[in-house]
Amino acid sequence: MKMKKITALAVLAAAAASLFGCSGPADSASSSAKASSAASSVKDGSAAEANVSAASGKEKEDNDKRNNKKEEEKVLPEDVTQGGKYDNIVVNEGVERAVKANSPQAAAVNGYYSFTYSDFGKVYSNEELEKCFDRLQDICANAGFSMSFSYRNIETGAYVGYNQYSRFMTCSTIKAPYIKSILQQGIDLDTVISRDYIWPGDTGTVVDAPFGTKYTARELIEYSILESDNTAYYLLFNTFGYQSFNSLLYSLGANYSLGDSWIFTYCTSDDMMKCYEDIYKFGESSENGKWLVELMSDTDVNIQIGKALGAKYKVAQKYGSEFNEWVFNDCAVVYADSPFVLCIFTQQYPETEESCQVFRELSLVFDDINTLLA
Q1: What is the pTM of this model?
Q2: Positive or negative CA dihedral for 98, 104, 105, 107?
Q3: pLDDT confidence bin for 318, thresholds 50/70/90
Q4: Is the model's pLDDT at 44 over the cut of 50?
Q5: Domains and CATH numbers, the chain
């Protein structure tokens, strides 16, 4: 699905509906929506059944047009979403040798760093850990834009944070925690919801469907995660509210919230990291949690953390971007042998090869750090 930049007029038009006009997904070179079942178009009045049949043909025609349009209007260069060295497993030979030597030692790193770290118990090599920290420092020093990241190993609690108390626009990274909250609430996934609203500036399957098209909550969840569809997310929010989400944040100690028609917000990378740790636990303990994780592992847009590590591990992620405000984010659960969560917020023009690079570099460094934990 092609990213449509939100104009100033669109933002003003949306002011009553939201404080933050985060844009939807970019073109991911996928040929069709991955949602498990197509929504049926139903119109009011006695002609509803006849219109369902007509809408099905119209839906197929619209899908064909959208797919052709995708091929003509790619937002990202080809090598951002396809090909490149990050499609293969990147091996750090020094880290690999240290792990094979199997001589754990108490973590002790010398040097001054602009990031913080804690709860490192034993590692396979302090020398290699220090090299990883030096690489992290170089990335932070040379970024040239505002950035924040938070990493935590789920099993050991080892933590690294940079600029982790600064608040950034969440954009679509918030969709996964929100959906987790309503799934935990026990919503009926067969609840039927009418598409009676379009998120300003949005494009995609739900927006392109006729007004009044009926969707189940299950379908809207799929579109929200797989395609990062803002209108689908808004319809869920408008139907199920935000109380369960805010209660979840309070229980996690995450200091942000949502409100009336306020579906995007600002938060720190630390607070978002807590939400993705919670998604990991939800995925380990419930069928709906497993389903959410599988959706996050199969998103249309995979250009950041998953691009770097997806050949090596399962990566459950949710990206976010906003062109007008120059925001580009990604948060992920990485299912390494010892799983970890990584949330990265950046203030840079999104969805270019250059802006994707920092996510991939950080992912590789944190994979090495995580591998060194004994």
Answers
A1: 0.81
A2: positive
A3: very high
A4: no
A5: 8-85+163-372 (3.40.710.10)
